[in-house]
Amino acid sequence: MVRPYALFFYVLISCMAVTCVRDYPSTAPYAPPVATPPPGGLPGQQQPSAQRRLFLANDKIRFGIDLNMGGAITYLAEAGSNENMVNNPDLGRQIQTAIYAGPYPYTQNGKNPVEAWKLLGWNPVQAGDYFLHPARIVSYQQTDNLIYVKTIPLIWPLFDEPAECTFEHWYDIKENRVNVRCRVTVNRADTTQYDARTQETPCVYLNGPYDRMFCYTGLKPFTNDAVSEFTDRNVINRYGTENWAALLNEKGRGVGLFKAREVRFRTAGFGIPHVGGEFDVSAGYINSEDFWVVDHNGVYDFEYTLIVGTLTDIRQYVYSQPRPPSGPDYNFVKDRQGWYYVNTTDKGWPIQNELNVKWSRNETNPEDFRICAPLTFWYAENVSKIYIQAAFKTQGSTARFSWRKPDEYDFMPFQDRYVDFPIVGDGQFRTYEISTSQLPGWNGVISQISLTNSASQSNREQGARVRIRSVTSAKL
Fold first, then answer.
1. What Cα–Cα distance (Å) separates residue 64 from each residue in 153, 172, 180?
2. Residue 90 sits in which domain range?
3. Which residues form the signal peptide (predicted)?
4. Does residue 2 lie within any of the structural domains?
C-alpha cells in the first residue's frame, strides 16, 4: 500500500497491490504521472499516535506490538540495542497484514476513496487508514511468551471506515525469531466473488538504513548457492525459491522474512537510501504475497517467521525447516490451497473437500478461463506423473493441462507447454493420469500449472462445471 506523503511511488505500489494473474505491467491499472520528490529528499513525519506497546523479550531480541496501531508489529531490536528497526511514520508501514479485493474503486457509507488510492479497492489494513485513524482493538491478551490481538482493520483509502472483517494475530518469540500466526475472517455484505489479488501477508517496513534487499532467486535452492542483493529500489517481484527475503543494513544485520512454501516476494526501497529513523519516510520494504480469492465470508490462515541477524543466521534457520514438496500435493479439504481463477469463479466459501468451479468463461469477458495453481518450484524430473481427481460436467471430451517456467510471464500457447487429455463429462469423479515425463517441454524447472478447456471445446458452455478433489504427483 502507498503512504500518504509518498505519492511519487504510486505507480510502483499500484502494480504491487493489484497485480492479479500475471507478473507484468499490462495487468496494472492506469496510474497518474509520477510526481517529483521535493528538493533535498523527503521530510520526516510525526508519530501518528501515542504509543501503547506490548513487549516480549529474550537474550536475543526485543519485540513489540502497538495497540494504537491495530496490534501491528512496531518494534523489533536486537537485545542490548535501543535501535528500533521498524518504520512507523504513519499507519501503513510497520510489519503488518493488509488484504486486497474488489471492487475498485471501493466506496462505503457514502465515503469515497482518496483519489490517488482509489484503485486499491477493498483494502483492510491492520494498523489503520490513510487519515491516521487507528484500527479498532476487539481484544488482546499477553502471557510470558505470547501476545494475542484481535483487530477490526480500517479501509486504507476511506475516512475512518471499519472493514467488514477481523484480523487475529498470535505472536511469540524464540531465540532470534518472531513467529506469527494470523487469521483473517471476512464478513462482507457484498457477496460478489472478485478476482484473486496479491496480498501483503505480511508487509515488512524497516528504517532507511535497513534497505539492502536480499533474496535467493536461483534455480538451485537449498544448496548454499549464491544469494542476490538487489539495488533497484522500484517495487519488483522476486521469485524466492528458498521461501525467504531479507532487509539488512551496511553491517550486514537486519531481518529476514520466511514463509513456508511461498515463492512470491517483493522488494523496494523508499526515500533517501541508507538513512532515516523510525518516523522518517526512508525505508526498506519486503513482503510475502499470498494470492487469494477473498470470499465475502472466507476465513484465511497463514504463518510467517521474522529472523533477526545476519544473512547466515537467516539462511541457517530456513535450511533447518522442512523442505517444500517436490511436486504437486494439493488436496482441497478445507481451502483452495492457493489456487485461483482467471475469468471464472467457484461456488465460494466454505471449501468442503473439493473446488467446484464453473467450467466456462465469465459472460462479460471474452477471454478464455483458467484454473491456476499457486506459483511454486519443482524440478520436472521429479514429477513423472500428475493425478487429477475430478468430476467434469460438460459436453466437452477433452481438457487442457498447462505449465509455465520461471522466465515466462504467463502460460504460453506453445505446443510444448500444454497437453490435452480425454475426460468424461458425466459429472462423476474419476482420477485422470497425465504422464508428464513423456511430454516435450516438461523439463527444467516448473513454476506453475493450470487447467482449462482445450481449443476444440466451447469456453462458454452454459452449466458446465468441474469439481476437483486433488491434484497430486502421487496416486491417492
1. 19, 10, 12
2. 7-319
3. 1-19
4. no
Predicted pLDDT at 1: 53
CATH code where residue 372 lies: 2.60.120.430
DSSP code at position 123:
-
Cell output for 371:
484454473
Q: What order do you get walking across the sheet with 398-404 strand by strand?
A: 340-342, 370-372, 448-453, 398-404, 418-422
- Span 342-357, pLDDT tens digits: 999 999 999 999 999 9
CA within 13 Å, CB half, 7:
12
The total of other beta-carbon atoms located within 10 Å of residue 392's CB is 26
What pTM, to 2 d.p., does this model score? 0.91
Residues 16, 141 within the same domain: yes
Distance, in Å, from the CA atom of 457 to the CA atom of 429, rounded to the nearest integer, reads 20
In a domain, 139, yes or no: yes
Identify whether 1 is part of a domain.
no
- How far CA 216 is from CA of 85, 162, 219, in Å, comes to 22, 38, 9
Q: 50-59: long-range contacts at Cβ-Cβ below 8 A with a sequence spacing of 24 or more?
A: 54/140, 54/142, 54/147, 56/145, 56/146, 56/147, 56/171, 56/172, 56/173, 57/173, 58/173, 58/174, 58/175
CA distance 146 to 31: 42
Q: Which amino acid is at 232?
A: D
Low-confidence spans in the chain with pLDDT less than 70: 1-48
SS3 assignment, position 30: coil
Sign of CA dihedral 109, 115, 116, 119: positive
